[in-house]
Amino acid sequence: MSPLRICTVYPDLLGTYGDSGNGEVLAARARWRDLDVELVAARSSERLPEADLYAIGGGEDGPQVLAAERLAADGGLVEAAKRGAVILAVCAGFQVIGNRFPDAQGQLHQGLGLLDIATAKGTGPRAVGEVAVAVPTESDGGLGLPMLSGFENHGGVTTLGPGVEPLGRVAAGVGNGAGDGSEGAVAGHVLGTYLHGPVLARNAALADLLLAWATGIELEPLDDAGSEDLRRERLGRLSLS
Amino acid sequence: MRLRASVASLAVQGVNRASRLTGKGSGTVAGGRVGLKLDPKLLEDLARGRSTVLVSGTNGKTTTTALLTAALATAGPIATNATGSNMPPGHVAALVGTKASVGACLEVDEAWLPATAAATRPRAVVLLNLSRDQLDRSSEVRMLAERWRGAVASAGVVIANCDDPMVAWAASTAERVVWVAGGLEWKDDAGACPSCRGAITFDELGWRCGSCDLTRPTPTWWLDDRDAVGPSGPVSLTLELPGRFNRSNALVALAAADALGIDPEVAAHAMSSVHDVAGRFNEVVIASTPCRLMLAKNPAGWSALLNVVTEGTAPVVVAINSRTADGADPSWLFDVDFSKLQGRRVVATGDRWRDLSVRLRYAGVVHDAEADSTRAVEVAGTDGDMVEIVGNYTAFRDLLEASA
Ligand SMILES: [Zn+2]
Fold first, then answer.
1. Which CATH number belongs to the domain containing residue B314 in this structure?
2. pLDDT in tens, B44-71
3. pTM higher than 0.90 for the full model?
4. ipTM associated with this complex
5. Which of A22, B103, B156, B177 has a C-alpha 20 to 30 A away from that of B388?
6. What is the end-to-end Cα distance of chain B in Å, rounded?
7. Contact residues, A window 180-239, toward B, CB-based 8 Å cutoff
8. Read out DSSP for A207-233?
């Protein structure tokens, strides 16, 4: 069996909030289960390699536009999505894999269209701070995860189209910011969110869900006392634990 | 001096009677603030006719300023903002009460460089590096570089680190540039060309943009294994300050001193006795444990200090807070390669010890955690070893206070 391949997408452009940590967390959690895993960082000057799981991070406005242009020209991520590869996209990366997103001046740019979402420049203050997201149970059509903890820092407002489900509902913080209380978006194995932190370090269950999608196997539980303690502490500060 | 400036200067000194004197000028930051309120052009007046050097960059500016001040002081008195107060009130405080014949060597906050250069008309500007700082309030790095271009255009000479594409691009507008191979710890803010947004590639020979002609300028100063090498040959460089990046800081200070007419051998000798920079790299005792206390404020700074720490084998305390001065979001912990600490005795502490602990786990670093930072130092020093402490801003400050 070939190794599980995890790709951190363009850390030179999209990695403002420690986002390469998501790839690192996924790789470590696979390794701890004795899975054969390979973690590659694809710089924007290179061709995007084939992988089972892609992690895309956040970035400032200029690099975000550049990343979208290069990913569109490269075509590898769109191909990967068609193949059924797992994609986690955070913050600016989340906006980039949608249909369109704004630059610093509010001018709209074409996204990759992997998620049926559209982002516009917000009119209010930037959304900055701790976030808590309640994820619906599987019987309610959700991903059935414990409440997510993260940190957001974005000025965009994201509207969900009919082709996606929200990742969850904000119990604290702003999230997508379109007035419906939604946070993030999911379609198949493509998942986008405004939570960084990095989100997978704080939310081991989400990391394992992505790994399960990518490997198709049931994963043994790990001793996550430390990250559970962190998640609860952060939620506790929002009085939500 | 204009009447308004004289009144404002007196006001600064008035505030000082109520507060304590710092630095080599006779002002305080609080006094500087009052003075600037009375006369917004006070800095301009204080700098008029003075030989002023400005030092800016994301990392190493306090250290480089201290080293360069030591070198320049061999030729006459120098006013400096040694406390690290690197915005106009600190600059005013450093200069007030000193004669215009006294030179000035001022550390300047990156964002304040354009305004400070406009006010002081510096004889030289030293540019170290430019990368992301506390994340939730940083401006875009390229935007800062753009603003630097205007700031350096009128400087007599610019001493610039050619290893940092942002700095190289910013300095290229200056009339006269001394290029120094000052190294670059952190490359992830330099992936996109500041000039054309093309991709920058790094290799052993330097860096170049794949889409335009921006490329690493050829340095006239660099480091070899032992010495600093300049236009007139090697200069022996022995420092009290630890680490490779402090050698880089010293190299840049040496090049600047040379550009300002100080003999490099004399400058190097003066710099060799600098050992404590605003409490950083200080050897202190906390909870009866001898420690070396170091401050890191951003990923590039952490990377540099972890290299210092890994030159030895001592136990390490890492302390992380997220108070206002630190930034509320510690996600940058994942920008720092903590795996360098694998195999060492490590204790995590600070308000955000849980975040740090999770970070260390994913970096494969076996460690202990203690919420109380003094206790963490005690635990790390159980076997009587000297302890290396690296903390972010308020964590560092609290431990420095605990050592008093
Ligand atoms: Zn270019």
1. 3.90.190.20
2. 999 999 999 999 999 899 999 999 999 9
3. no
4. 0.96
5. A22
6. 41
7. 196-198, 201-202, 226-227, 229-230, 233
8. HHHHHHHHH-SPPPP---HHHHHHHHH
| Parent domain of B62 | 45-271
Q: What fold does the segment set A4-236 form as a domain?
A: Rossmann fold (3.40.50)
Who contacts B257 (Cβ-Cβ below 8 Å, separation ≥6)?
B68, B71, B72, B264, B267
Q: Which residue has the tokens 């990923």?
A: B299
Cα–Cα dist B112/B105, whole Å: 15
- DSSP-assigned letters across all residues of B243-306: SHHHHHHHHHHHHHHHHTT--HHHHHHHHTT---BTTBTEEEEETTEEEEEEE--SHHHHHHHH
CB B159 within 8 A of CB B216: no
Q: Which two tokens stand for residue B290?
A: 């001898």
Count of structural domains within chain B: 3
B205 DSSP assignment: T
Residue of B206, B212, B126 whose CA lies nearest to B171: B126
Query: Which residues in chain B are closer than 8 Å to A151, comparing Cβ atoms?
Result: 328-329, 331
Contact list, A57 vs chain B (CB under 8 Å): none
Around Cβ A77, how many Cβ atoms within 10 Å? 25
The pair of structure tokens assigned to B383 is 């076997």
Q: Annotated catalytic, A196?
A: yes
H or E element that contains B62: helix B61-72
Same domain, residue pair B65 and B210:
yes
CA–CA distance, B137 with B134 (Å, rounded to integer): 6
Question: Which H/E stretch holds residue B42?
Answer: helix B42-47
B141, B199, B359: residue with CB nearest A201 = B359
